[in-house]
Amino acid sequence: MRGAAAAALAALMAAAAVRTALAWSDRTHVIITEEAIARLPEPLRGLFAEEAALKRLQEAAVAPDSRRKQMEKDAAAAPPERREALKKKADEEKFKHYLDIDAITPEPPPFKNFPRDRQAAEKLFGAKAFQEHGIVPWAAEQALNDLADALARGQTERIFRAAGDLAHYAADLHTPMHVSKNFNGQLTGNDGIHKALEVGLYVRNEEFYAAEVRKNRREVAYLESPRDSLFEWLIQANGRMAPIIEADTAARRKTAYNPGAKTPDAEKEMEDPANEKSRPYYAALAAELEARGSPEASAMRDAAAHLADLLYTAWVRAGKPASLTPAAPAPVSESAHLSPYLLLIPAALLLLLVLWPRRKPQQ
Fold this sequence. Notes:
The protein has 363 residues and is mainly α. It has a single domain (13-317), classed as P1 Nuclease (Orthogonal Bundle), CATH 1.10.575.10. It is 66% helix and 0% strand. α4 crosses α10 (156-172). The longest helix is centred in the first third of the chain and has 27 residues, at 51-77. It starts with a helix and ends in an 8-residue tail after the last helix.
């Protein structure tokens, strides 16, 4: 009885786990964005590939996480009368980073009956479901539309904001932990896998992932239906969760290490590649993932390739502009400036002839 009660309590606590918007590290977003630009054809690549423009885009790709964190801080520090409104605004940003699709529908993958249209989905499952479980594909679609419009208008500030949002949300929906109800392994005894994979494993294998993300380059594709593509990629990412959980379970069993343990040194153990206590676990996790085809590396590579497709699609929609700024007005020729005045000369002569007093004939 006591064991059954404990198991029930553990299950209840797991189900009630608070969804946090953990994401790939800033550095991962940076390399995904850089690789996406490298995959673009000219002249589009040239618009973003110059060092200053690329750096600005990479900073914009990281900005949604910084923006969310600042919103949460502002809400926490606000006076009571403003706190709720600011918290709602922070939550609206947080929901844009994930969609735990299997928490909303009992339908198994590939979720063919899940509505791709947001209004239809909210009508079927209720708007509250998406306030809890996220809206990332629709956030990415909105960023794509904003980018196409900004490119068409030559609105440089808006271009980088929209392109950065697109880069961030599109990368997030490729993250297996952003599209699964088991987002932190809390349902399977793998608590802590989210940050262990996206931060701890990455900082120890940055060169490996930087090389992996550049593999299998192909021509970019114009997306006839970006929304359908976004959902297709999200569902593929959801399928990558199972091998990641298997790899983590095996690594924990081999090393008796729990990356999700709440200890004073937990952050240091995760973020410090030289930490002796966590090193065996991360080495085992890397080996177990590799044995399963490195699904996390495939997710990063797909994120870069698909982000290139999205950027290209926005650019084509905008009419393939050759610059990120509005075209300068055509110079007006000197003759064009003089032409109105030249027309006045014959008019003035005609008027003079009409009004000039005539001499009377002599008697």
